[in-house]
Design goal:
This protein has six helices and eleven strands. The chain has 249 residues and is an alpha+beta fold.
Amino acid sequence: MTKALKICGIVLGAAILICIIAYIIILIFVPGLFLYLHTLKECPNINDKIEEYPYYDTVVPDDYQKVKAGVFYISGPMDDYLVGRTSSVKTVFKNSERNFMVMSTSSSAGSVDFSDSDYPDLDKSDYIHFFESIKYNYPQNNKEMKIFIRNGLNLRLSLHLRGKDKKVYKQFASKKEMVSGLEKIYAYKKGNVDCFVCNCSISDSKKSGTFWSIDAYTGDNAETVNKISISSNDIDEIKKVIASVEMAE
């Protein structure tokens, strides 16, 4: 009996030693494995990327009215043409019966701000170190940050992160998961237009109508974001308005 217990003790000790060695190997060669598994579970959209806009073949009707709206030229139904300003918001087209509205806004894009109440111990140097660790250029403005969050951030990056880099990654992964649930974003490049088109309706399927936006950054450092907001009960009407967009400046 004593001999059997000794053998069991040796086997158990060997098993524990193997587990410790395996854990050490994981920490050395794949330090972010547990972060990887956590992200895989909590952030199912982590590998999503900005897709190419799928409706380039939409034709703008001949009877649409072309007007200037901020830095854009935009077209819509002539009967719905409306000019009115409230602060920095310009309502260009409106038809209440169809829940149709096109508005133009322009505002400061703001500077890159990494502050997060959930991660009070992180400062700018930690974010610089993170981007150096993943060999990605440090975002200089919010447009570049949007592109990183949507296109540059993925599950594979988590595997080899250590220390505070893991916290930074977790913050970005949580942000990507949140915005992925609020909007579907597309890259739109046509003529002189290079912008983002966003389907902002996916967060509330019960909402009446559909809401999309066209976002273009302007300025030497993308310091201004110019937006065309479009709502309608008819998705085809929204596609036609988007198809009409041109840059005026």
